[in-house]
Design a protein that fits this description.
Blueprint: E1 3-4, H1 7-18, H2 24-37, H3 41-45, H4 49-54, H5 63-78, E2 83-84, H6 87-91, H7 98-109, H8 118-127, H9 137-150, H10 156-169, H11 188-191, E3 209-218, E4 224-228, E5 239-240, E6 251-256, E7 260-263, E8 268-278, E9 287-290, H12 302-310
Parallel strand pairs: 3-8
Antiparallel strand pairs: 1-2, 4-5, 4-9, 6-8, 7-8
Length: 311
């Protein structure tokens, strides 16, 4: 059946999404807290976006959390809580690519499904000495073909776990432990004494720098103004500080706080936080007056947490 009620795919799905571009040691605590609050598809689907994002605060790549929430709603509302049981059906849902879909099917249902994550790409690039950048479309197609041929019909989950672990523990990005690898006899990169030459990378462009100013606005009661960001763009759906003076009453300067440098995948963000006081308390559905040491209204990005801790 293409859809079924099964808690295991749900748990594997959450862990696989969290592990995208994030280390296992970082994910463990987030995963435990997330599953405690949202143990089922229904509990996640019926939760507010703020509740979901608050459990993701500090984990980064917040589009993952928004897509998880969207997908949970689709499964709950359109498919009566039954989880997709084919790679094709999974791949149509928000935030689930073919490799993640393969991992979910393979590990939760013990069926044959192909995985091509970063670790697998590195192992294949070295083993076959693929001498073109691994992010090229033709190379990706070639790797999918190799991964398909190598994945066995039976015990595919064991194979997938093994090749992922091989990339994570032995065939690492830097300082690969080739002498401990059971495949050095046939690894072309090892035979050519070039393991770290692969995977071939494209030349990186200089990372652009963007600068913003954050307004830390406090009222007479000592409350701090937080603004809910739109769902698009960086930190979509999170609570942050205003970044412009538009539509704000007259502010009184207090002090400048230390500059914060925050790295994104494609650019560097320089944040200049400035404290102001305000005499008139403003209200809006997208605004929240926060008192330090109380519960936040939803998810916040790491720089916002850093500024609040400074205060």
């Amino acid at each position: 059946m293409p859809w079924q009620e099964n808690p295991t795919p749900y748990r594997v799905w959450i862990s696989e999404i969290m592990l995208q571009q994030t280390q296992v040691t970082t994910v463990i605590g987030y995963y435990d807290r997330f599953m405690k609050s949202f143990p089922t598809i229904k509990s996640l689907a019926t939760a507010t976006e703020d509740a979901v994002l608050s459990h993701w605060s500090g984990l980064g790549y917040y589009a993952r959390a928004r897509n998880i929430h969207k997908t949970a709603k689709i499964i709950h509302e359109k498919h009566k809580g039954k989880f997709p049981c084919t790679v094709e059906a999974l791949s149509e849902l928000p935030g689930i690519g073919e490799s993640t879909a393969g991992a979910i099917i393979s590990f939760s249902l013990q069926l044959k499904a192909v995985i091509l994550d970063g670790n697998v790409k590195r192992v294949l690039a070295r083993y076959f000495a693929i001498d073109k950048p691994v992010n090229q479309k033709d190379v990706i197609t070639e790797m999918w073909g190799l991964a398909e041929k190598l994945t066995p019909e039976k015990k595919a989950a064991n194979y997938n776990q093994a090749i992922m672990d091989l990339g994570a523990t032995l065939c690492t990005r830097t300082k690969p432990r080739c002498n401990d690898c059971p495949f050095i006899a046939d690894c072309v990169a090892y035979k050519n004494n070039q393991p770290t030459f692969y995977p071939v990378k494209t030349v990186k462009k200089a990372r652009p720098v963007k600068k913003i100013k954050m307004f830390i606005i406090e009222n007479k009661q000592g409350e701090i103004l937080l603004l809910k960001r739109t769902s698009k763009g960086i930190w979509g759906g999170l609570w942050s500080f205003p970044e412009c003076e538009n539509d704000l009453p007259k502010l009184k300067f207090i002090e400048e706080l230390p500059i914060i440098t925050h790295q994104f995948t494609h650019f560097t963000l320089i944040i200049s936080p400035v404290r102001f006081s305000i005499s008139k308390k403003i209200a809006s559905t997208d605004l929240f007056w926060y008192t330090l040491n109380t519960d936040l209204p939803g998810g916040v990005a790491a720089p916002v947490t850093k500024i609040l801790n400074t205060l």
